[in-house]
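User: Continuing from earlier, I have the next pair ready.

Assistant: Great, send them over.

User: Here they are, in order.

Assistant: Folding the first of the pair now:
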Amino acid sequence: MSSSLRALLDAVPPLPVDMTLDAVTERFGEGGFDRMLSLAVVDEDRQPVGLISRHALMELLLNKYSRDLFGRRPIRYFMNTQPVIVSLADSTSSVISAVTTQMRIPIIEDFIFTEADGSYAGLGSVADVLKLVEQRLNQRNHALAQANQEIKASQAHLVQSEKMAALGQMVAGVAHEINTPLGYVGNNVQMAEEMLGKIHGLVAAYDSLFENLLNPAAEQTDVEAQIQAIAAMREEFDAVSDLADLNELFTDTRFGLKQISEIVLSLKNFARVDRAATDQVNLIENIETALTVGHHHLKNRVTVEKRFEPIPLVPCAPSQINQVLLNLLTNAAQAINHDKGRLLIRTYTRGEFVCISVEDNGSGIPPEHVSRIFEPFYTTKKIGEGTGLGLSISYRIIKDHGGDIRLATKPGVGTRFEISLPIKPLTNQPVHTDSSSDASGKQVADSIEVLQTQNTY
């Protein structure tokens, strides 16, 4: 017998099955078990056969003739012959389950405890069982709360890991994008330095000749030698064409620096470090920023087509929307496994929502994967190529903004994702700054069905 069951047991003496109703009434009047609602009835072998409750006895005695008529009759005619009986040999959980599932409402009786051999051991109060259940529920709720906190911490860590992985890929790509103009800027500067060195030498030679020409004591042979040296230098340096080349070098250098500046500005806009968490945003600018930052995924193999209809400003967290757009662009680029890639990006308004459509002509998504595409950690990529959190995070970000993200796909044809965001600010639902929750399968299924009914391709 566990300590929990021992705490529930009250060793109240039972009533013999042949005890009269008058005697039972007197036993209830004697007291000593005021907290109990009933008394157990046992046979000659102390095997429980029923319960008689205070409530049943009072109802029986409300009739003033009942005692005269039934007072000398045995209690077995008036008892409840189907009481709740549990064994002390059972586990606490099974006892709680038996009592809570079999107890009657309203609660007017206790339940019977028996020994391992089935003999009567005592009574138990349903109220005590309910208190024990409450304690266990509180303990489980506390454990669940702790587990939930640990899960949230793990989710936050995984989301951060996903962001860092995406950031690493983005930084590597941006570094490559910056390295190209930086390379020819450096080359141009080197060539300009060489030309300026020649110009500096020629100017110095002209300056020395000019001083000798003004010097009456200068030797004629020295002047002639300087003139010959200048003539040789002029053969190596064509002032007209070389200065034109130098000017072109400076023009190319300015163009390269402008490209670097645009990439850095795109990175700044992508992060939106100087903007409020939520702002009125032109989503077309966000798309252009995401295309610039993710250009290394698309260049030389994917043609980007833009069909931007004028759209109103949208209240959103721009850095989070940038994260969603970059994720969709990256996924589209990775899905295109041929050299005739096409990416169609559209903006339009539907009712009270602004929509962005990202459509590729990649491999598409197999039907068995479609219903799980927004699940956390679910990925069709090879191990090490993805965590399966990108679309899940994107889904949660859009949902937290009060919008929706839906897809249509056909294997071998391509995939289209549609993002919709409300034009008016949310009044009852704030835009969260963290997004680590998962996606509801029902919501995803509904969203997919809506788009799959359209003739997208």
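And the other member of the pair:
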Amino acid sequence: MKTSTKTTGIKKPKYNVLVVDDEEKICKIIKIFLDMSSRFSNVVLAKDALEAMMKLNNQDFDLIIVDKSMPNRSGLDFILNLKKSFRLGKIKVLLISGCLTKEDTLLAMKLGIKDILIKPFNRQRLMEKVSTILNF
């Protein structure tokens, strides 16, 4: 959950983020981009939905960044299961994808996902989306 640090007399919350993507390079790039900002205290990586669920059972997160296309369970299926949980359903989500169909977009909207980031993206686009979602 959010932690605070004191900087010039103003407390700024720090956020915990879970990144779920089967592409290790994408996970590492997102972690590097987020670690460059002082707004994040913990960026945790998961290679699939199963590993992500294990991490969600052991830690609290403010934001989940999840890829739509993953083996075994898609990012949208993962989010659907999250939304069924009282505790986990309140975590904010950023969906990332290299290929998104109209049906995927409609399902994402039904699941309450307002923010989607299309690959490839740069640090500026990622930070714009993340700051909008977390309101900083």
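Worth noting for the second one:
The beta strands are 3-7, 10-20, 40-46, 63-67, 92-97, 116-118. Residues 16 and 42 are 5 Å apart (CA to CA).
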